[in-house]
Design brief:
Layout (H helix, E strand, L loop, with lengths): L24 E4 L13 E4 L2 E7 L9 E3 L2 E3 L1 H13 L2 E5 L3 H9 L5 E2 L13 E3 L4 E10 L16 E5 L3 H13 L3 E5 L2 H10 L4 E5 H9 L4 E2 L6 E6 L2 E3 L4 H17 L1 H8 L9
Parallel strand pairs: 3-6, 3-7, 10-11, 10-12
Antiparallel strand pairs: 1-6, 2-3, 4-5, 8-15, 9-12, 9-13, 9-14
């Protein structure tokens, strides 16, 4: 995940059992959020299908809450694609882990949540073409980094990572190599970044655009290590073998918004052009 993580993760923003954070429902492409929530793909009329889409809750700049509504790269990309392709959807933002589990369990049709496209995940999900490229790195509280310039300098340190993300997997896989004292899991980004600020953890692993956005929003953070690890594309996902029509619509719409320039406009709005996919 690159995700994906935090309300600036202040926003950084950009997940847990459909129970965590917010269960507020947003609508896309003109869907009325007050209408009954569909169970998976539900026909609301003889001619119309409303897809149920899940997402993270605090993973800026991909998704985060602002003035009572969810905004961010994922939110805007999906809305633009739905508009162009002419489909309707309802969105919930339960948190990353809950969002992907809802799709795996057949309780939702698709997920867009800064989700890295990985081989293990392909056993459970079918992915769209990548809509963003991201990689993980270390974030530390400004002034606490000392002489840290490589992962080996974090020996005996507590490293935070969001549960069920690429960051958590990478931390566990490399814990012995670099001598990390502990990989501490967090359900979402807000408590993770707060823990860093309060000294509960020494550093955190997160997608580089997430940490960068947090810094741009005033978080007192630094990225002391130059290297970016586990670089992967982020993708929209459906349960493996299901909702092929929705996946086709997403890919078609993604190609169109790249061609008309609106894709890059969305990324520029969140200072995230560096991860643009051609």
């Amino acid at each position: 995940m690159f995700k994906k993580a935090f309300a600036t993760l202040s926003a950084l923003t950009l997940i847990v059992g459909l129970s965590a954070c917010s269960n507020e429902t947003d609508s896309g492409s003109g869907t009325d959020s007050a209408s009954p929530e569909p169970s998976s793909s539900t026909d609301t009329s003889a001619a119309e299908t409303v897809y149920k889409i899940t997402s993270d809750s605090v993973y800026a700049p991909f998704e985060f809450e602002e003035s009572g509504s969810y905004v961010g790269i994922d939110i805007e990309i999906l809305a633009k694609i739905a508009e162009i392709e002419g489909f309707k959807y309802e969105m919930t933002n339960p948190g990353f882990d809950a969002a992907i589990q809802a799709v795996a369990a057949g309780q939702a049709d698709g997920v867009i949540a800064g989700m890295s496209i990985t081989e293990p995940r392909k056993d459970t999900y079918d992915f769209s073409d990548p809509y963003y490229n991201a990689g993980i790195t270390i974030g530390m509280k400004k002034g606490s980094e000392g002489s840290v310039t490589a992962y080996g300098d974090l020996k005996d340190k507590k490293i935070g990572a969001k549960i069920a993300t690429t960051s958590e997997s990478w931390c566990e896989e490399n814990k012995a190599t670099y001598g990390f004292a502990e990989c501490v899991g967090f359900e979402d980004g807000v408590p993770m970044y707060d823990s860093l600020e309060n000294g509960g953890i020494d550093a955190l692993l997160d997608d580089s655009p997430i940490i960068g956005y947090a810094i741009s929003q005033g978080r007192e953070l630094v990225m002391p290590i130059d290297s970016i690890e586990a670089v992967a594309g982020l993708g929209f996902a459906v349960k493996r073998g299901e909702n092929a029509d929705l996946l086709t619509k997403f890919n078609s719409g993604l190609a169109k918004i790249k061609a008309d320039g609106s894709y890059l406009e969305i990324l520029k709005k969140y200072n995230a052009e560096s991860g643009a996919v051609d």
